[in-house]
Amino acid sequence: MSNAALERAEAAKLPQDDIIGILLTQHARIRELLAEVHVTLGDARRAKFAELRALLAVHEAAEEMILRPVARRTAGEDEAAARNAEEREAERILAGLEQMNPERSQFEAKLTEFEKAFRDHADSEELEEFPAVRDGCSQEQRQRMGRRLLRAERAAPTHPHPATAGAAAAQWAAAPFESLVDRARDALSGSRAPR
């Protein structure tokens, strides 16, 4: 069974709107999109990468805004800081990928670098941060957090913004403005924002 299938199976065991279930499902979709970007070419690759980039951008921003403050309390400051540092690095790599031609070999190499960084980050969240949040919060709290996460994602930027990555306060302050610009940019380019 693939990591994506395992994540979906674990998410299916959790109540609807549970933040951990939502994030596991998103991790699974990100893994699937990474695989799809690797095997597609031309316009299909560009479209898959645009979908991947948008999902990653909203996922990470909402995670930093909703999950990370709770993880600071349940998993500890060092754990939360480590995940934020990983997200800053991922945003930097993703921003670089966004500027590259997807048909070039450099894109493939950078995508592979990003995929490894994402895998390591998601694995750390799933093994260290998520269990602490599950243990430190009631089911009702996790469901409230899940609903807040989904609302935050609807207003989150759809492109990487390394300057605000890893800082919840910066995300709360800048995300609404970045999102407006990103979503206008997406509309003009024909990209679809995640729902």
Structural account:
- α2 runs antiparallel to α3 (42-74) and α4 packs antiparallel against α5.
- The model has no long low-confidence stretch (mean pLDDT 84).
- This protein is globular.
- The protein is mostly helical.
- It is 80% helix and 0% strand.
- The protein has a single domain, classed as Four Helix Bundle (Hemerythrin (Met), subunit A) (Up-down Bundle), CATH 1.20.120.
- The protein is built from 7 helices and no strands.
- 38% of the residues are buried.
- The chain has helices at residues 3-12, 19-39, 42-74, 77-98, 105-136, 139-154, 168-189.
Report strand %: under 5%
* Low-pLDDT regions: none
CATH domain topology: Four Helix Bundle (Hemerythrin (Met), subunit A)
**Helix-strand category:** mainly alpha
Separation of termini? 27 Å
Main sheet overview:
none
Share in helix? over 70%
Rg over C-alpha atoms, rounded to the nearest angstrom? 16 Å
**Strands, count:** 0
Shape: globular
Quick check: average pLDDT?
84
How many domain modules?
Answer: 1
Question: Helix and strand string, N-terminal first?
Answer: HHHHHHH
CATH architecture: Up-down Bundle
- The count of helical stretches stands at 7
CATH class value: Mainly Alpha
Any descriptors?
195 residues, Four Helix Bundle (Hemerythrin (Met), subunit A), mainly alpha
Topology readout:
Blueprint: H1 3-12, H2 19-39, H3 42-74, H4 77-98, H5 105-136, H6 139-154, H7 168-189
